[in-house]
Amino acid sequence: MSRSDSLPPGQKAIPNFIIYRILGQPEVDLNSWRLRVGGYVSNPLTYTYNDLLEIADTSYVSDFHCVTGWSVRNVIWEGVSLRKLAAEAQPSRNVEWVYVRSLDKYTTVIPYEDFLDERGLLVLRINGKPLSLEQGFPARIFIPHLYGWKSAKWVTEIIFTEEYRDGYWEALGYHQRGNVWREERFK
Ligand SMILES: Nc1nc2c(c(=O)[nH]1)N[C@H]1C(S)=C(S)[C@@H](COP(=O)(O)O)O[C@H]1N2
Ligand SMILES: [Mo]
């Protein structure tokens, strides 16, 4: 079976996303919201929501996997490729990790190599509609082969770093990378 028709080990399909907001639902003000891309880069950048809409370049269908064992199949994802954001910021050669911060103070960490996966996405739309507030409007991360906790909602900062640093779930024992096909659930 190919990856497109099988689920990763230990996962079960359910029809709809279960909404998680472990730190509460943040209030989003689109006028003040910005996405900052920085850290160890030669060209730090700040994007408004409209800037991101203008450079949206990617759309595909892929499954979503939460580490607690549920998956939602065949979701349509649209947005800006993370590769493009990285290319604009020009991370230093020594970058190994990407640290992500959100409006609700949620954080997560992604290996630079996985961040650069060709399907890595800053999501602006799900299933043909703008992200709902509860699903992370204005923007969230999605990398199909990583567990859902890496898919930070309401993202405000993407920071390229040399040093590993735990995010919210990683500090509680969840894996540095979280590859669903290798079942990297815990450290
Ligand atoms: N800011 C923020 N992002 C988050 C979370 C959260 O609590 N806060 N939960 C994560 C987890 S564990 C999962 S499985 C997915 C769930 O996405 P959903 O709420 O759209 O179903 O969001 C991820 N991103
Ligand atoms: Mo999750």
Describe this structure in words.
There is one protein chain. The chain has one domain: Sulfite Oxidase, Chain A, domain 2. Helices cover 10% and strands 32% of the residues. The protein has 3 helices and 11 strands. The protein has helices at 49-55, 82-89, 112-115, and strands at 12-13, 35-39, 45-47, 58-65, 70-81, 97-102, 107-111, 121-126, 129-130, 140-142, 155-161. The strands form 2 sheets. Strands 1, 4, 5, 8, 9 and 10 form a 6-stranded mixed sheet that branches. The radius of gyration is 15 Å and the shape is globular. The model has no long low-confidence stretch (mean pLDDT 97). The ligand Nc1nc2c(c(=O)[nH]1)N[C@H]1C(S)=C(S)[C@@H](COP(=O)(O)O)O[C@H]1N2 binds at residues 17-23, 66, 102, 104, 106, 135, 148-149, 151-154.
Write the layout of secondary structure elements.
Layout: E1 12-13, E2 35-39, E3 45-47, H1 49-55, E4 58-65, E5 70-81, H2 82-89, E6 97-102, E7 107-111, H3 112-115, E8 121-126, E9 129-130, E10 140-142, E11 155-161
Parallel strand pairs: 1-5, 2-11
Antiparallel strand pairs: 2-3, 4-5, 5-8, 6-7, 6-11, 8-9, 8-10
Bound molecules: the ligand Nc1nc2c(c(=O)[nH]1)N[C@H]1C(S)=C(S)[C@@H](COP(=O)(O)O)O[C@H]1N2 and molybdenum atom.
